[in-house]
Amino acid sequence: MRVILLGAPGAGKGTQAKFICQHFNIPQISTGDMLRAEVQSGTKMGEQVKSIMNEGKLVPDDLIIMMISERIQQPDCKNGFLLDGFPRTITQAKAFIEAGIKIDHVIEIAVEDQEIIARLSGRLIHPASGRIYHKTFNPPKNENKDDLTGEELIQRKDDQEATVRSRLAVYHEQTEPLIAFYQQEDQQRSYPSPKFSRLVGVGNVDDIKKSLLDLLEK
Ligand code: AP5
Questions:
Q1: Domain for residue 184, yes or no?
Q2: What is the rounded CA–CA span in Å between residue 30 and residue 51?
Q3: Going by CA atoms, what residue is nearest to atom 21 of ligand 1?
Q4: Overall average pLDDT of the 82-100 stretch
Q5: Whose CA is nearest to atom 8 of ligand 1?
Q6: Residue 31 falls within a domain, yes or no?
Q7: 187 — pLDDT class (breaks 50, 70, 90)
Q8: 166 inside domain
Q9: Is 13 a known active-site residue?
Q10: Has 2 been annotated as catalytic?
Q11: Average pLDDT over residues 117-126
């Protein structure tokens, strides 16, 4: 099973990716998490992308394509993978097609901008595991502490409202065209193209999870 989750920042890709990956026993490949790990470790790549990420812009296509191409060669991807945050541009999507990498399903999680701003301003992260909470919608059992480890939760630098607004602008300009791109791929079926589905990502997290699993098991 090879899946792409598409959607605006804060649409719930990371939240739902965890359920899908557990259910199908495939790795979650989050380009955002991979890039944040590079920044955290202070690598050359991390230095290169730090300010771009803090401003909410996209890092260069060639760098991302190289990073993902290497990642999917790893043995844990043998039976599939879930891409969370890739592709984000038409160039990235075409690079996969040109490399002959087959994807089974692309799912867009659709959420309006106003809801996104409310979600991201309240998001809390457990950095070591990537577990995601929300101050109001999905609060941890103890304030600001991870449920499993009791460790401190953090807010991402790019979750400040002004940065969220520019991430949304980048999404509409550069990533949203992928929806029409994959819809067309699905209709043409010229290449072993992925099936495209759209799911409204507003409402109870468990209900959205169930709808996603239903879509993938069809
Ligand atoms: P990345 O880390 O991928 O960020 P993003 O796409 O902006 O996505 P998020 O992680 O912010 O949101 P999400 O959809 O996973 O939502 P979540 O589940 O956390 O990328 C960061 C940066 O890296 C980019 O800006 C760019 O610079 C760079 N980058 C990454 N990939 C790249 C690429 N391919 N090319 C170029 N640059 C790239 O949910 C959000 C909140 O909502 C949480 O608090 C959650 O608890 C809550 N929530 C979830 N579901 C619900 C619900 N149903 N109801 C209410 N609340 C909910």
A1: yes
A2: 19
A3: 32
A4: 95
A5: 9
A6: no
A7: confident
A8: yes
A9: yes
A10: no
A11: 93
The finding on whether 133 has its CB within 6 A of some atom of ligand 1 is yes
Tally of structural domains, the chain: 1
Domain containing 139 equals: 2-26+79-216
pLDDT the model gives residue 107: 98
Residue 140 Cβ inside 6 Å of ligand 1? The answer reads no
58 within ligand 1 shell (Cβ under 6 A): yes
The answer, yes or no, to whether any atom of ligand 1 lies below 6 A from the CB of 14, is yes
Q: What is the mean pLDDT of the chain?
A: 94
Q: What is the CATH number of the domain that holds 201?
A: 3.40.50.300
Going by alpha carbons, the residue nearest to atom 39 of ligand 1 is 12
Tell whether 87 is covered by a domain: yes
Whether residue 189 is predicted with pLDDT greater than 80 in this model: the reply is no
Please report the pLDDT score of residue 191 as a whole number: 61
